[in-house]
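Hi team,

As requested, here is the filled-out complex form for the 2'-monophosphoadenosine-5'-diphosphate run. I kept the field names the same as last time so the parser does not choke. Let me know if anything looks off before we queue the next batch.

— J.
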Amino acid sequence: MDRYAVIGNPIAHSKSPWIHAAFARQTAQAMRYEAVLAPLDGFADALARFRAEGGRGLNVTVPFKLEAFALATRCTARAEAAGAVNTLAFTDDCILGDNTDGAGLVRDLTVNLGCPLGGRRILLVGAGGATLGALLPLLGQHPAVLTIANRTSSKAATLAQAFAPQAGDTRLGGCGFDALAGQGFDLVINATSASLAGELPALPPGLYAEGALAYDMMYGRGRTVFMQAALDDGATRVADGLGMLVEQAAESFALWRGVRPDGAPVLAELRRLIEAG
Ligand code: ATR
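And here is what came back:
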């Protein structure tokens, strides 16, 4: 049976084995998918071992996405743009690196949440790895405005400059939080790691245009602090990143198996399990 796994450190609480088992059942694919804990200094060895044992592909998670990018012998354009790899596919002579995070985000937004991005004003908060992975797929949707705002404004400006050649007719810019005052957005995405520390990015009030969606890439039971703050500040709708998690997995599954699973029913079931604790 074809073998796949998610590899990271820590890995015990990864939902990927559950998600891929659900996709395999749904699409009647015979495959195994496990979780592999790699030592912090042992990613390359763990990858080589899994491949030597006949493994067909890996999902790569924290903290190995940059190392996976370096070890891939060929990368997709979206992985190149992200400078990070969350999906590896093995053939005899090639380690293909892909990054499905941004595509998963876009699919969750446009399909699961019914939020079209073309012509919209989008604010992306943060300028770390999560933002980098999302930029090219978001630009591919042709928003009218894509503003990157970061606590350290220089990082946002650098990112905006780097992606200017891909911006097309999107108004792409980078700034600090203060410069956002007085602007309205249709979609605000929290791509910072602030929630990991239970913190909130110090955004000025009044960022949400009428009907706006606030999206937190983090997820958990109930609303995240970012979602609650967004509602308090006038967001019409809020969503967490559980759908992005499911949809990036669906995209990886499609790359490996050539069949695209339907993420929505798997997301609904996963949500039910998480809310039930
Ligand atoms: P990674 O690349 O792994 O995502 P990172 O490069 O450290 O991690 O990026 C984390 C992002 O979250 C950064 O944009 C960071 O802002 P700074 O560049 O100013 O450090 C942002 N971040 C983390 N904690 C934050 C907080 N409390 N408020 C606002 N932004 C925060």
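Two things worth flagging: Residues 242 and 271 are 8 Å apart (CA to CA). Residues 2-99+245-276 form a domain with the Rossmann fold fold (CATH 3.40.50.10860).

Thanks,
J.
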